């Protein structure tokens, strides 16, 4: 069964895009955006160039199997967030929103982890602005 979209991308990643944002200090961070326009995940590290930010996102996707992650209380107060960290324990990404329920956050984390292998093979269309 072919589960590809009309664009040739796997159906699970069709319409997902990655955007690079610039903070007030002129540093770059990535944000993964779902087809409905909602942010799914954000980088927890900022980069000095747009290119380094994109490279970091690709490294995150391709190295996902070696990364840890889990659910924790939000630092802003009530609610839950998921976080992804590297082998040195540095937090690299987190959910773009806080979840009211632990189970909902755990489900979103599972979906994000399942997307990473497919995002690792995405080409320039992932970065297309729509």
From TrEMBL:
Listed InterPro entries: YegP-like_sf
UniProt-recorded name of the protein: DUF1508 domain-containing protein
Annotated organism of origin: Streptomyces brasiliensis
């Amino acid at each position: 069964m072919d589960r590809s979209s009309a664009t040739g991308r796997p159906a699970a990643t069709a319409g997902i895009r990655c955007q690079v944002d610039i903070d007030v200090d002129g540093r770059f961070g990535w944000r993964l955006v779902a087809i409905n326009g909602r942010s799914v995940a954000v980088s927890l590290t900022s980069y000095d160039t747009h290119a380094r930010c994109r490279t970091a996102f690709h490294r995150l996707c391709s190295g996902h199997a070696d990364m840890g992650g889990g659910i924790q209380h939000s630092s802003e107060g009530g609610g839950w967030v998921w976080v992804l960290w590297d082998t040195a324990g540095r937090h690299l990404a987190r959910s773009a929103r806080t979840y009211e329920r632990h189970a909902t956050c755990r489900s979103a984390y599972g979906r994000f982890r399942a997307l990473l292998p497919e995002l690792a093979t995405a080409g320039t269309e992932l970065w297309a602005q729509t």
